[in-house]
User: Which sequence fits this backbone?
């Protein structure tokens, strides 16, 4: 057991604070990672603040983790001390069900184990995430990070990157397809960059014009602001093959479904706490598909990282210290992040 520095939440309505937590001794298949950078995902905020239901405190969140291996267990074969690696939202799954065998560990039929606020399958302890100086993880859930990627800017790929890459790949974003990205925060800006790199024609649908120059710089050919123009979506009727919807707050899905071409698909990746109501007719007319997508499996996460290395893609980040996390949370909720906060682990 090793006691390490961290930042943790102690209750839904209290600010996060500096603390310590105990890290297990390495299991045979574990690597110990000295964390270099840790991204702040809106899911950390939903979870910490109890918006998705009760959770375990104290909780050190963080599932966009980049660092170097400082120790390996005796059964580790695929990784070496000194190598740069990443950890995303998953640290374990059953490994035996059809989803795990297909490399879709996020959809493990026996329940995946999240990087934090989840029950460890082997010892029943509650997992603790990347807002800490060290994290042990089974080699089966670690991702190789090429040295060519800037490590701070690559951290958000481990959640925001794979969560948007996976549905873009599944629904065939590429040359000749028109893709809209709704909400240009952490996930949304990655979706724009990835869809453009895949060869799709990308439109950003944001609630303001504030991010227009950035959206075009990330690869969008069009940008529509809905906030000050209620009719903006009307002009997009039947425009898109695929919509990746990243909005984190309640919204009317029907408005966006109208913007799909017949047989087009809207994929929800944003997870507003409230349920949504959709009339069947909004899907039946035009045979439209409404889908969801949950991060991505480990093989596809490695594929996404390799794609990003090949295309020189990383996140746009604001690097912060541990004492700025609470302020950063408020800025994310206010859509005032350009475009992902990443914490320097030296400050934990
Ligand atoms: P984020 O950085 O806060 O981005 C969310 C974006 O949604 C904002 O930048 C904003 O974009 C838009 N938005 C926010 N409030 C809105 C409102 N009231 N009306 C319209 N648009 C609004 O959050 P994120 O980290 O990208 O995460 C987005 C969502 O995805 C969260 O709910 C998160 O929990 C979820 N998530 C899901 C998965 C998954 O596996 N499915 C993985 C990670 C995260 P504009 O300013 O451009 O309008
Ligand atoms: Zn996330």
Assistant:
């Amino acid at each position: 057991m090793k006691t390490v520095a961290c930042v943790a939440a102690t209750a839904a309505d209290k600010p996060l604070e500096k603390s310590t937590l105990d890290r297990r001794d390495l299991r045979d298949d574990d690597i110990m990672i000295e964390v270099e950078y840790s991204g702040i995902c809106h899911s950390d905020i939903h979870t910490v603040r109890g918006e998705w239901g009760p959770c375990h405190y104290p909780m050190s969140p963080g599932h966009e983790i980049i660092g170097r291996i400082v120790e390996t267990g005796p059964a580790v074969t695929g990784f070496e001390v000194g190598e740069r690696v990443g950890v995303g939202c998953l640290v374990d799954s059953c490994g035996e069900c059809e989803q795990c065998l297909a490399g879709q560990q996020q959809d493990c039929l026996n329940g995946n184990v999240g990087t934090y606020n989840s029950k460890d399958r082997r010892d029943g302890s509650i997992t603790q995430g990347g807002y800490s100086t060290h994290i042990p993880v089974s080699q089966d859930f670690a991702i190789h990070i090429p040295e060519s990627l800037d490590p701070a800017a690559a951290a958000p790929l481990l959640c925001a990157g794979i969560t948007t890459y996976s549905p873009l790949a599944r629904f065939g974003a590429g040359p000749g397809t028109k893709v809209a990205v709704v909400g240009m925060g952490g996930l949304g800006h990655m979706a724009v960059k990835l869809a453009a790199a895949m060869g799709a024609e990308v439109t950003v649908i944001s609630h303001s014009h504030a991010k227009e120059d950035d959206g075009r710089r990330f690869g969008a050919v069009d940008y529509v602001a809905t906030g000050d123009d209620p009719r903006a979506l009307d002009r997009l009727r039947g425009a898109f093959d695929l919509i990746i919807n990243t909005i984190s707050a309640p919204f009317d899905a029907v408005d966006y479904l109208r913007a799909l071409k017949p047989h087009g698909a809207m994929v929800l990746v944003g997870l507003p706490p409230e349920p949504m109501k959709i009339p069947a007719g909004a899907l039946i007319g035009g045979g439209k598909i409404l889908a969801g997508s949950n991060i991505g499996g480990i093989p596809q996460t490695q594929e996404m990282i390799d794609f990003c290395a090949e295309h020189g893609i990383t996140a746009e980040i604001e690097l912060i210290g541990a004492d700025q996390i609470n302020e950063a949370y408020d800025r994310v909720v206010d859509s005032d992040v350009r475009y992902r906060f990443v914490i320097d682990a030296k400050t934990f």
About this structure: The radius of gyration is 20 Å. Residues 41-43, 46, 159-160, 163, 183-188, 206-207, 211, 246-249, 251, 269-271, 293-295, 332, 335, 337 surround NAP (ligand 1) (CB under 6 Å).
